[in-house]
Amino acid sequence: MNTEFNNFALTDFKRRQCLVMIVLIFLPFKIFAQTYSEVNGYVSDESIPTIDGLPIIRTIEGGTLLKVSYSEDCTYEMQGAFNYACRILEEALPSSLPITISVGLGTFRGADNKQLSKVDVLQEEAFGRDNPAEMVLMTRIKRVLLKEREVESDVTYLDSIPSWEFLSSIETPDIRITYNKSYLNEFSFSLDENSVGEDFYDFVSLALRDLVRGFGYYSTILKNPNEDALWLRTAYANPFEKAILNAIGSDDLNEQFSIATQGELRLSSSLILYAPTTWQNGISLNYFIPTENRLSQILSTEFGKGTIRRNVTELNIGQLLNWKWDLIVGSSTPSLTSDGSNNVKVPFNGSISISQNTTYNLENTDTSNNSDIRKIVSRTPSVRNAAGDDYEHIVAYCDSLHPFWHNQGGHGGEGITVSLLRKNGLWDVVYDANGFLTPIALNMSDWVLNFSAEEYARTCDGYLRGRVTTSTRKGRTYSYKSTYFVIDYLPQKIELELAPEVSTNRSLAASASLETHDIRINFKNLEGCDRLVIQKLEEGQRIASKYNVTDFKNGYFETSVKKNKWTKFTAVGYNDNGSTKSDELIIPAISATISSQQDNLNISISNKTIKVTTNLNDDTRQVKYSILSPQISADYPAQQGIINIGDNIDIASLSPGLYIVVCTTETASETQKFLVH
Fold first, then answer.
1. For residue 36, is it left (φ>0), alpha (ψ between -120 and 50) or beta?
2. DSSP letter string over 361-377?
3. Nearest to residue 482, comparing CAs of 56, 55, 57, 60?
4. Would you call the peptide bond into 439 cis, given omega within 30 degrees of 0 as the criterion?
5. Left, alpha or beta for 215 (phi > 0: left; psi -120 to 50: alpha)?
6. Are 467 and 486 in contact (CB under 8 A)?
7. Which of 445, 230, 442, 221 is nearest to 344 (CA)?
8. Angle at Cα 209 formed by Cα 301 and Cα 38, nearest 5°?
9. In this predicted structure, what is the pLDDT of residue 512?
10. How crowded is the C-beta side of 299, counted as CA atoms within 13 Å?
């Protein structure tokens, strides 16, 4: 069964023994600290052609946002593909506080060199007073913490948060994913599932596997290298490992091993773990035999080159993770269901109709007691609880993600709100009305968007992510009903990046010229773009050349540029609603003429003007300048613009004080301080 996985069964026993000994040494001690658990990503090196693509109509389970940071060596092409995987998975996640993820590249050594990726999962032992002997993942903490605040439950997690830093630290993301540099040339970063090919690993599908791992679907169970018995931590197992132990059903280590090597281990009617007769550390009890269950397909043993699995509908990611679906409030259990869909779509500048008889407002029904007198309750912090300002900050942050939150603060009263999800994970309320009489048509023209279009989160189709919530009084309580939907909008601003030196697919004849060289431009933010045009302006040209990039979803564009001239590129993305232009990407000249002389900018300042000249006697080029005040953020320059070499910058309007002027061309940069009297 799945013999290709045997290719990766080699392990370094000494390293494994050392790891096991370290685990055993620390098992008796209860350490209240966040730690990472490492999970290795094994795949087959064979071609396993499978296409389980993205369905056109998909359910939306909630409003969770995955916030990703990348290391500097991750190209835009790679970032764009990983972002696309995040947008796909977000639709299948129930509402949670934002989940933080870091992605980078690494060099894998020894037996690990056969792995495509590694996932580090942030966790804490014995977190929350109702989990005295359990390994609790940060993803679960953030899910439960929000749900407890939404229904005003008798909190078990909030009182255990030690500080605001615990939730917000960028140094300790909830999930860390590292990809093997050795395999970069074997990844396809295409968003188009039909252009991956059987000779490449589909990076989007691989990212989905890694993300699901990060939410807790992994096991650290090993084989005892000295006998046929399992090494496992029964005291502080994670929820998935506990499900495995329950399925094994024996306390005898040797009998456990026998059960765990019978070919398969059934966790439920549709989830069957891969359990080969020859134990394979990192593989046995860590992958599923694929069934109709989406989770088993994402983490299937049958994954290799040409395997495309992007369908995460009905993923039910919390199935085995003890996410506390039923939160008790007093003597009642509120409903926490969700039936949102990307099929509930507001047209560009259109409207959405809401009535009691539609399904548009029937999901995520959260009912709580005494919600008309909601307020932050003053508590006496426990030993591990955040104190003072930290505690108030945490409560306010969780409450701001309440489904009926108002921009002016709070979440009380009856009425209806329409909110758009922002890229920071918070919601912008664009429509807020008291009272609720159905039917009602909510026109987009009546909404007030409080942020620029680039600050709003998008779906994998490029739509804005919306939520409409109604609040109705029932006695002394309120019933909240939310519907997640999508909004057709303009395409995103595509980001451009000059790729590192790569072997392009262009013909040898095109790259053989002594006057030109081939480049690759990587793209990011392609979701929502139906057509892409590249504008190419070469030094000395008045009008840019235009290229209709038909295969832009591959994530890059290849062309040639002249070595002795700078070239400017701009991407214009189109959809049915209009177009959006990117910022310029400037490719500097690399000719011997320019590189043989050092390009120095000279800045001369008078009381009214700044003049910029260069030693190359070239007055055809342009200079970008920014005038900054040390007392104000660099994101808000006092003055900025573009001038020709030799022209004057008028600074007569600047207020008295100290300033810094930064001037740049394609080949030089100069900074100078000056004082305005």
1. beta
2. T-EEEEEETTGGG--PP
3. 60
4. yes
5. alpha
6. no
7. 442
8. 95
9. 41
10. 28
Q: Give the list of residues 6+ apart from residue 382 with CB closer than 8 angstroms, or none.
A: 159, 160
Contacts of residue 409, defined as CB under 8 A and 6 or more positions apart, other chains included, come to: none
pLDDT tens digits for 467-515?
988 888 777 677 888 889 999 999 999 999 999 865 445 443 344 446 8
DSSP one-letter string for 139-191: HHHHHHHHHHHHTT---SSGGG---HHHHH-SSS-SEEEEEEGGGGGGEE--S
d(Cα 376, Cα 312) in Å, to the nearest integer? Answer: 37
Residue whose entry in the numeric block shows the structure tokens 């900025």: 640
Confidence (pLDDT) at 251: 85
**Distance (Å, rounded) from C-alpha 660 to C-alpha 566?**
27
DSSP 110: G
Whole-model pTM: value is 0.78
- Residues 444, 330: contact at Cβ < 8 Å? no
DSSP string for 257-282? HHHTTSEEEESSSS-EEEE-SS--TT
Per the CB < 8 A criterion, the answer to whether 658 and 673 are in contact is yes
**DSSP string of 3-58?**
GGGGGG----HHHHHHHHHHHHHHTTS---SEEEEEEEE---SSEEEEEE---SS-
Amino acid identity at 190: S
**Lookup: tokens for 570:** 């701009």
Q: Which tokens is 537 given?
A: 């302006």
167 φ, ψ (degrees, to nearest 5): -90, -25
Q: Which of 390, 383, 422, 427 is nearest to 407 (CA)?
A: 427
Please give the residue that has the higher pLDDT: either 353 or 319.
319
Nearest to 290 by CA among 305, 277, 302: 302
